[in-house]
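Appendix B, example 12.
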Amino acid sequence: MPGQMLHERHTPSQTAPLHAGDPRWVFAVLVRLEIERGTLTGAIHDRLMLSGERMGLGPMQAQALIAITQESLARGGFDSSTRADILSVPAPSNRDPSELSDRTRWMVFGALFCWALIIAGLMLIVA
């Protein structure tokens, strides 16, 4: 059936590689460790989202992986369906991880500008 072929093409294979260094897997394990430590508070969630961004994951990918991990732990732990769910999340883009996002670039620029103002003010006070 044409519809079935289309569905099979977009469904991740059970044999698709999910190696230990895959950012999706690393992020899911990181989330699991945080959940096993205790409640996933807002601060921990924000830290996880930042870690996901550093791994090249977008906010939607990170949120999906957090939900997948929470659901799998509620079922008793990681299993083959968890693996399939993780594979269903698009892999991160191959952008250079050293490349700063626009938001980060503006934050760094703002911080440097503030420091320059503080130093200039101190120089005026001393002079």
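The chain has two domains: 8-95, 98-127. DSSP finds six helices and no strands in the chain.
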